[in-house]
């Protein structure tokens, strides 16, 4: 059976996007990469700060509204359709709802073969990397570090606290069939 | 009948992405925006300069390989699936193959209701805007200005040579049902 | 006498940065480009939202604190020193304080030969371009369109309402000696 | 004596910019941050690929021409002038010429009080981080890892191979007077 999708889940500043780029470099086939950031970029600017869209509080807490949720569901279906159509797809996600977020994907995935990967990073280290990235909303890394993994089931977990992105990517790539 | 997708086609620096952002601002419903740029961003970095991926010559000429074409086909199917799943989607495209490019979309679209929009801009004006944007590969705007429209059939055309993005967006929005 | 600096002043979304890139393209000598945006990028992230730094209200109103002002003064002196050291420098500024802002530059400039350029754009057109750029803080373009020019004395004014960046740049370049 | 400038030197992907942002966060005073990247951004686009400007070969080797060198000298003088005018300034540099590059700064610095910091990273780790960043020109990290330190004299060295940016920044901050 061929792995059609890799779904990485982890908190902000856990190092997911670096792992994704390394996966795209080390995997022999070309993989498309999407994620919560590319989805948010696709939204109207006006949804960045409205009840129906996404809101990031001063402490880094993120809340999303009904329009966001409806568009996200359609986006998930579309990304899964790309995999069904033959593209291999790696996804960089932040499961703010933990197990409930994973279930939203599972509902759309059907029999698509997915490798589920948890990306962990010690909260204090992720918070430090958030400072190094210069993001203006501090606190997201700490707030999300654990909650995004609650109840989520993985095939594999990597931890970027003491392991480089490229090494994590190689570990993941070894599980791709 | 409800317009499910808007597909804008035009050459580099014709002003498509500005029109897309204005459409997202003026249309009452939230629309997702994707395009050739977001697709290229999803590709592995190594496909940016390889025979199987995309190559931009010093004069701005763009060529794509077999892997690019296969992934693009899957990406198109996925974007159309988002529309079928209820999201309204606006696409910003550059039909390097003219009518053949449009047919690739039509094959995937089936009975999805699309508004086809040609975005024109006089070649010399587009070339000037390319300089103003500071892109390093000059010449794309001129090369693409006419060729991308060859044989393509539109519901509507706008011309950014003397008309602002917002006004073009309002014209397009008036055709959305 | 050789023009050592060009200082462009205009409101947000008036088209200054496009003109700067065109000037760098059409002027035969290499010119360094700096401006209020590159200055703000050089500030600590924490000054983006503090009384001592810069604050952008929801309506686009910008206020700056004492630390900002002190660093800006040193930055101006440094940029003028580059011109004295032989680099030709083009500056992209937003004189929120009108004539008072110009005087801050004049104090540092001494006998450096400057071409002062006002960049105008009709408020409604600038507001439309702000939407097209997808900036999240709407209203800056309108608020700043006129106030930044109050009491400022120019060698030359250009208006981007109906004139392309490249044409404006050529007009300016013709005044560079 | 008060430290007026901090100059960090290290190869591409050694982690300098992350350290700079952490320094700006942990140092009690506001520090301005500039570096080779902000200087290159200030150059005309046409100097990105010309004999007089900067050229990056396919293997990551960087060469610069006479115009680049002249503008860089003026830029260095200007940045030093900012420090003389009272701003505290942190610089992120890549001394492609090793000791000769340091001397270019020393010539301009006079009696300005500088903390010289070497930023090291094992070549293989830096190369992996280059992949994680998705840079299209691979090889710069390896090529530059050692050569940029040849003959350069530091007050302090940090190594990002096994130490986070924030911890490196705290070590450096402890040496700032």
Please explain how this structure is put together.
4 copies of one chain form a homotetramer. With 177 residues, chain A is an alpha/beta fold. Chain A is 43% helix and 19% strand. The first copy, chain A, contains 7 helices and 7 strands. In chain A, the strands form 2 sheets. A 5-stranded parallel beta sheet of chain A has the order 2-5-1-6-7, with helices on both faces. Chain A has a two-stranded antiparallel sheet with strand order 3-4. In chain A, helix 1 packs across helix 7 (165-173), helix 3 (66-84) crosses helix 4 and helix 5 packs antiparallel against helix 6 (140-147). The model of chain A has no long low-confidence stretch (mean pLDDT 94). Chains A and C meet through loops of A and loops of C.
Tally of extended strands of chain A? 7
Backbone CA Rg of chain A: 16 Å
Q: Could you tell me which chain pair has the largest interface and how many residues each side has? A: A-B, 35 and 35 residues
List low-confidence stretches of chain A: none
Multimeric state: homotetramer
Q: Strand order across the biggest sheet of chain A?
A: 2-5-1-6-7
State the helical fraction of chain A.
Answer: 40-55%
Helix vs. strand class of chain A = alpha/beta
Structural shape of chain A? globular
The end-to-end span of chain A amounts to 7 Å
Average of per-residue pLDDT values of chain A:
94
Helix-strand pattern of chain A, N to C?
EHEHEEHEHEHHEH
Number of helices of chain A: 7
Strand content range of chain A: 15-25%
Largest sheet of chain A: 5 strands, parallel
